[in-house]
Amino acid sequence: MADRRNQLVARVRELLAEALGASRNRSAEAQTALAAARQRAVRIRRAAAGVPERVGAERDRRLTEIETGHAARLAELMRRAAEAAAREAPGAGSAGWSTWQPTPAERAEPPGMARVGTLRLPEQGHRQGPRGDIVAEPVPALVTLLDGGHVALDGDPEGCAAVVSALLLRSLGRAAPGSVRLIGYDPDHLGGGLAGFAPLGTAGLLTFVGPGGLGGLLDDLVEQIRRINETVLAGEYASLRELAATTGRRPEPWRVAVLLGGDELSRHERGQLDRVVRAGAACGVHLIVRGVPLPDDPTVTRVRVTADSAHVDTLPVRLDPPPPAALVTETCRRIASVVSAGPAPTPFTDLLPPPEQMWREDSATGLTAPIGEGPQGRPVLLTLGDYPPHALIGGPSGTGKTNLIFAWIGALAARYSPGELEFYLLDFKEGVSFARFAQGRRDPSWLPHMRLVGINVNTDREFGLALLRFLAEELRRRADAAKKHEVTKLAELRAVDPTGHWPRIVAVVDEFQMLLAGRDAVAREAADLLEDLARRGRSQGIHLVLASQDVRGIEALWGRPALVAQFTLRIALPKALRILAERNDAAQSLPKFHAVVNAESGLPEGNQVARIPSASDWETWSELQHRLWRMRPAEAAPARLFDGDAIPRLADAPDFRALHAPEVGTPRGPIALLGEIIDVQARSAALRLPRAPGRNLAVLGTRVDEACAVLDAAARSLARQHRPGSARFSIACLDPDADPAARALYEELADDAAWYDEESVTELMAETADGLGGPGATGTPHYLLLFAVDAAAGALAARVGRASGLEHLRRILHDGPERRTHVLAWWRGVARMRADLGGAGARTDQIGAWVALDIHGGELSGALYPGTSGPDWYPRPWRGLFFDRAVHRTGQTIIPYGPSR
Ligand SMILES: Nc1ncnc2c1ncn2[C@@H]1O[C@H](COP(=O)(O)OP(=O)(O)OP(=O)(O)O)[C@@H](O)[C@H]1O
């Protein structure tokens, strides 16, 4: 039993030991696991502690990134907004006050908006500057006024006044001087931003309406809107802005009414205010109000100002300071002085079609072109055709006649090509402005339509006559052509003869009364020609435009009612008298640079007032002329310029250039050119010297230079028709003053010339007379050029052999021409010539031709000139009267050629 018990104890011990061992192992394992777990926990805790730090950094990084992007985007948007604002409110519309100056919009350009401050954004836009600094980009706060709408102000008076003066100054700065008119209504004398604009009042650009005047003011604005809608926009345009954009014209000013408080409005006034708000902006009528309720309308911008903030509609705004007072008054003063100086002329380009449209018109039925702008901004047209055919222009000196002629010629020349229209222009007053139409030294261009320009012709009425004769000839040519084609009018002639050259002709004569002045042959013939041209030119496309500053010019026509009646188109410049019908005094109240245009012979119902653009200053004109000149046809030749003050040169004369010597022998009837004829083609006066009795020339008068010039031209032109060595030129100079000219001629003629003086002239006479031989003898052509031959009378009176020198001279004059010996002699008076010819009663028929210089017509009576009283000749410098009994009925005025040297 004990064993059993011992065995049992041993077994229990054994089991216990096993159990203890096992549990020790387990415990150790547990310990290890615990330690590991503890370590993990620490690690985890540590790791866990690191996690939020990383997430936060990431979040912050992202946030910063988003913020930067946002700021950049905002800055970019604000930059664009600022740029857009600068576009919407260019120049004076938004410039800062320190650099502000007026920048008027072009006429087709809208004036734009006006800046009053900057937008106050919740997050102000920034962008990084180059060094990382922050740069603010303010966005301008803009308000629409001119052409856009109205502004209603409310709140702090000082802030409102700042907005009013900023808006007004910016509006004035964006418009041409005078094109913004302000009307103030300030019954409580609040000033309200208007005060600084007072200088505009002197030019009528700022008017005030007194207390109680609001109703009248609103009625007036409504009336303006009605008128503009009916007569200016006239259903064609929705607004003045559209009209300006389409046509480039702005015929109405902007009217800005500034209404500052006052009593409550009556029903009528409210109604009128409503109308202005609804319809005003399209007609350039705008309101700026404070203390006057404006109805809600899309055109109304509301500006609310409190002591520390401001809003434009709903946008918060930081208002600009008001413009400096000095800037306001100085700007207004300048505008007022420009306006007081007179209305700005409309630009000349208004009269012209666009370049691609030039020379597109057809003149078959007439010529139509604008001359200026009418009161409603519409062009006023001038027409020349079957009706009205001719025009009279009148206006005292300085009222713009010349300018009007330039404007009209330019408007026509730009529309009709030179094949459709030709001009002839004659200016009887002193001045050279029309010379521009012809080619000049300074400017090689000319107006391709211009065929003739006569300037400084005041003493050369013959030139006017020559033009009229030329036109009469052209009229005859046209009438003949019409008859041949069995038609009556130019339009029909052009239809049946489409390849013919039948342009309309416009002949302009400025100060035409000079042509008709006096009761002499020139005036009589001129009036007859004018009458004929006026009557018949109408249907043949020849149109007369006569201008005069002087009522006497018109009176010269008044005596010829049939002539005056043809001039149905009348153009009266300010203060012109008698151009319009008797009781039509519209020209008396015309402003400067305006004209009454009347196509009804001046009857009041035909009046149209036009504002004439400035066209005559050199730059304005030459721009057009150069353009048209470049368009000229290849064969176009410059206009003939006749300048009464210029002395022509023989070497330039077409007739001189055309002379040449025959291949063999002597010319049958050589020609001596004496001077330029006063005519349209610059021809030379030519004396034919065939072998026929009387073919000698006497130059009569005391003017040395002119006499020498006539003999010089005669000799040089004759020499050109003889080969060297085939003619003799004997030059006798008996007046020392003529010596240089005679010597120059002697040198020019070289071997063909011989020189004689007082000593040797007698020999010349004797030898020449003796050499004449019998009546059939025809020797070498011999020309005796005797300068101041009367000075040799003493020497010639002496007998040499059988006869005296004078007798020889008479024989040469008598028998010479038939033997090719011609005398071209200068006597210093008619009586001296007669004496040399044999005394007072001597025959003069051996003097077949003469040129009279300072000799009165009466002295030339008798055998020298047909009739009893001599020619109508009043001597004047550098002019001569040429008469050739073989070809002339009346004398011909010539201009001696200038010295050839
Ligand atoms: N429409 C106009 N706009 C601006 N300036 C003008 C206009 N018309 C004329 N003028 C200017 O007025 C001045 C006188 O004009 P213009 O020479 O045409 O007058 P006029 O009547 O022909 O005078 P006169 O007969 O004395 O020559 C010139 O300096 C001219 O430039």
Automatic annotation (TrEMBL):
- Provide a GO biological process annotation: cell division
Q: Please list where the region (Disordered) is annotated.
A: 85-111
Entry annotated with the keyword Aminoacyl-tRNA synthetase: no
What's the source species for this entry? Micromonospora qiuiae
Where do Low complexity bias regions lie? 87-96
Specify the FtsK domain's residue ranges: 377-582
The keyword Iron-sulfur belongs to this UniProt entry's keyword annotation:
no
Cited PROSITE patterns: FTSK
Keyword terms of this UniProt record? ATP-binding, Cell cycle, Cell division, Nucleotide-binding
Tell me what this protein is called: Cell division protein FtsK
